[in-house]
Amino acid sequence: MGNVLTKIVTAPFRALGNLLGISADKLEAIDFDAGSAVLLPPEREKLKQVAQILAKREQLRLAVPGQYSDTDGAALRAQAVRRAIAAKAGIKLEAGEEPGPLNLGERKIRGALRDLYGERFGKAELDKQKKAAESAAPVAASASAAASAPAKIPVFQRLGKLIEGEPQVADTGAFYNGLREQLEAKQPLPADALSKLGTQRSAAILAALQQDGTPAARVSAGAPEKTEAAPGKLVGLKLGLAAQ
Predict the structure, then answer these.
(1) Do 183 and 189 form a contact (C-beta atoms < 8 A)?
(2) What pLDDT was estimated at residue 57?
(3) d(CA 104, CA 235)
(4) pTM for this structure?
(5) How many other CB atoms are there within 10 angstroms of residue 229's CB atom?
(6) How high is the pLDDT of residue 34?
(7) Quick one: 179 and 225 in the same domain?
(8) How far apart are alpha carbons 74 and 66 in whole angstroms?
(9) Count of domains in the chain?
(10) Residue range 119-150, pLDDT digits in tens
(11) What tens digit of pLDDT does each residue of 24-83 get?
């Protein structure tokens, strides 16, 4: 019994999983997409196993922290910029719906992105970014061409870009991505945005456990707190087990 208790203290979910015949190697943390409090299907299945462990060991209590990371802040800023661009482009979203990645192939999206940038940074700065894009355009490959001569694009494309207010370059992807990155970097967030996200995550976990039959008295939500997560990776909330 002493050995079992030692294992439960050092690796609680793994030890209990082995004891109860449940695969529990990775149950210690529930992962979320950056900027999201929506339970992913694999994490929902993990919580079903956590509920089984709690059901078989009534003396155990579960603590669920409301964790968030710096990557969540970046994701929330990106979401806010996408919502602002969608609104300017006339795209209506349902309540709680998040816009997907920007489709720069759509003219209205490009126009909304330029308009938003101009509003927040000023028309002069937008013109400066256009000139920088034109200066950075690929140069002609021929040695006889002037070293700084930009690759030419058809006259009708140049006219179209002039009318649209776009830089005179064949590929505007880098230009628009640059505008987006600057908008995201300067996008303000409410002071409580991250702590609110952490609270929403712990609430989602508690709700799922209760749906699986875990009494509310057996689980508790911790205060919002910061955790570490690598850019581009999921954000894990580490669960805590304790005996009463």
Answers:
(1) no
(2) 83
(3) 28
(4) 0.82
(5) 19
(6) 96
(7) no
(8) 18
(9) 2
(10) 999 999 999 999 999 888 764 444 444 444 44
(11) 667 888 999 999 999 999 999 989 988 988 888 888 889 999 999 999 999 999 999 999
In angstroms, the CA 218 to CA 57 distance is 11
| Residues 182 and 197 reside in one and the same domain | no
Residues 82, 182 share a domain? yes
Q: Give the Cα separation of 73 and 185 in Å (integer).
A: 10
Residue 103 CA: distances (Å) to CA of 84, 145, 158 = 14, 35, 21
CB 147 within 8 Å of CB 135: no
Six-digit token string for 34: 């950056």
Query: Nearest Cα to 28, choosing from 46, 1, 3, 52?
Result: 46
Rounded-to-integer distance, Cα 109 and Cα 89, Å: 6
Write the CATH number for 215.
Answer: 3.30.1330.60
> DSSP letters along 76-133, please?
HHHHHHHHHHHHHTT----TTPPP-S--TTSHHHHHHHHHHHHHHH-HHHHHHHHHHH
Q: How would you classify the pairing of strands 60-68 and 235-238?
A: unpaired
CA 243 to chain centre: 35
Dist. CA 150–CA 135, nearest whole Å: 8
